[in-house]
């Protein structure tokens, strides 16, 4: 085997190796004697699609069979705190429309108290399955594994009984299987002073610095970013508030043509508000006005589904996020609402959103996205649940004037045969209407699964 092929093989599994680090460290750190609380679900899922390549013309049908393992691990010891979840699957395409694939997703964080109340060490990892080309439909030929790995210490100092200081140092490595311009090494530091107003509320002053070095600097400019902001966190009986207000400064090392760098300042504002209107109903809103990039988003992967918990049908799901794998910095304006109702037989989730991304370097298309995601679960019987779900997303690209509108609608039924065995059937319709010739498509799919849950 040639050296280049060996190197490519090592890179292909680099992200997967990092995703195991949180679990591995938790088993060997000193003082860790508490067992994990592990949950898993294993089984087989299958999907038949009448347009698996999502083409405008010349549709191809195929059936994919995927043995799957979903897992979660939690530990809340005095020295080690761990939260991790993910899945791994092997996809086999019966009619060979696409090559068979081994894919996985993971999101985990490990906090190790090296010196209690003085020094913690944090390891965090996110492994996602995302598109290579954001302008094409998400298909097996247009997907890649993307990994963001974070590690570093946090030091604490107690000034008074209600005031403390905190220093965060982090190394961040980002890797994309098919988009090498996304690969980078990042170094960040943060100094914080936190003051406790009450047992459930505090204020803080924060100063953060981030230095980003790309493996391919000719595609995206290396940069430094400095954030300074004040924060308020408050938990009340019916309201929760998280607020950040400040400013960011961006220092680009050069412009997109390789010329001299430039600086930019940008207001920073983030607010998340949750209101528990009744014991079963929660309204929420998140607003963000900040500088960001794709790696920042992937560190907090719950943002990818706009806060919706789709655990009830996760094992039977063949979809993935359409988040952008793009290294460049953008100015983000996001408004996201949410409503959740948890009843005795009915659960409902609704999340409208609007997001605008303006890239600092002009060769990347600015875009606006808006839409809504909704899930409804109704328990027909104690062991049988009916699910109805839908999503609409509208994307407008500012330079090409292209506009895509995606619709997804589905209905599913799950039945728990025993305490551990569950079967599920879903019917789903997906469509895209695009102003660009050849980018529209319609797809109908049926999905079935049988799984065993611990």
Automatic annotation (TrEMBL):
InterPro entries: BBP2_2. Pfam families: BBP2_2 (PF10082). This is Outer membrane beta-barrel protein. It comes from Lysobacter korlensis.
